[in-house]
Amino acid sequence: MTVQISGGFDLTRICHDAQAVLPFDSEHAPQAVNAITPLFRIGNATLNEPAMTDKPRMPIRTLTVGRRPGLFLLVGLCSIGFFVADVATATCLREPIPGMLVLGIVTAQLTVICVWGTLVRGTFWIRLPWTLLLLVVSWCGLAWGITLEKGNTNPDALLGTAVTWMFGFITSFVPLKIAALCFRWQIIHDTDASPNAGRNFNYAIRDIMIGTLLLAMTMGIGRGMLTGEDINFTRALYASGLHEPELLFVISLYGVVSLLVKLPCIWISLGEKAEKIPSRIVVWVVYCFLLTIFEIGMLVTVLGNPGSDSGVIFTGMILSHQLMGAIMLAVCCTLRGLGYRLERSRSPQTDLQTELRSDSTAVAAHPESV
């Protein structure tokens, strides 16, 4: 049997040449030819059509350069806006509605940091030090606002804020990371060839050194904010107030409801079809309102009615969740406008099996091409 593929590949001659160096049984030659034919077809197509491999490169380069100004503008606006909100938090907490509004803004900030650390494509362990550094910088803004509000540095207030901030980070980061691992969701750009393009699980010495430097900077900034203070777990726990069951319940309930409010925003803006986004936002507004009513009901059932300020407090809670979701929708819709989307990645084994199956099907469907 002689199999000739366009381009000059004689597979029988190749198999006979291989007998000299490999334990190759002649009676299995047809099976060997059928097995390696798809590979030669792929290689032959690549050699005969070099222009096809070059065509996508120019658009990718153009789109990549074109989206950079938009990304820089988005990151700059978010950084400035969130940092101003961090500094103003201590002052705004004097009143219920301004306090709840600024709480919604800083919670959205925390979610943006967690989304970047868990869902954006790339090596997780390289992004984690950057995520922690952003977390510490945002805490510095909160600490600066507390210092300006009180007129002096209050170590217990700074320490309590740090513990509460880290608690909120964990309750947002861990569920998002679990969802990313279980459902393989990731934020990618339209110019990526496939949901797995650009994956790189190799660590260079540069990456390790940068990660170590960022971790050192993170710990140095945190320690520098509390110079000369004896920090231990007991002091940190009591400074944050998380040792009190009522406060722990309030913070935990707010965190769970906030997570349920924000997750649909990510899907609507990055995963849903463009024509369905307006209707989905309307549904989300009703959904967010009902979740807030549930949260208010739980608080009243467990802690009782807050008194004469209940109407103002409950209004602030509703506005807080709505503002939080609106910020997430705005940020994620801007990313969508820059070409990013939320997709489910496939494992490398699945990609290999799919490719081999398609090649075998093509050979069986068009035997005349072999």
Structure description:
The protein has 370 residues and is mainly α. It has 2 domains: 1-55, no CATH class; 69-349, no CATH class. Helix content is 75%, strand content 4%. A hairpin with a 3-residue loop joins strand 1 and strand 2 (9-10).
Please summarize what this structure is.
The protein is built from 13 helices and four strands.
Architecture blueprint of SSEs:
Blueprint: E1 4-5, E2 9-10, H1 11-18, H2 29-48, H3 50-54, H4 57-92, H5 96-118, H6 124-150, H7 155-183, E3 185-189, H8 205-225, H9 233-240, H10 245-270, H11 277-303, H12 310-337, E4 340-344, H13 348-365
Antiparallel strand pairs: 1-2, 3-4
Helix pairs in contact: 2-13, 4-5, 4-6, 5-6, 5-7, 5-12, 6-7, 6-8, 7-9, 10-11, 10-12, 11-12
**How many β-strand runs?**
4
Poorly predicted sequence stretches spanning 5 or more consecutive residues: 1-9, 20-24, 39-65
Q: Describe the largest sheet.
A: 2 strands, antiparallel
Helix content: over 70%
The termini sit apart by 12 Å
Please indicate the count of domains.
Answer: 2
What is the mean pLDDT? 77
Number of continuous helical runs:
13
Radius of gyration (Å): 28 Å
Task: Give the strand order, joined by hyphens, for the main sheet.
Answer: 1-2
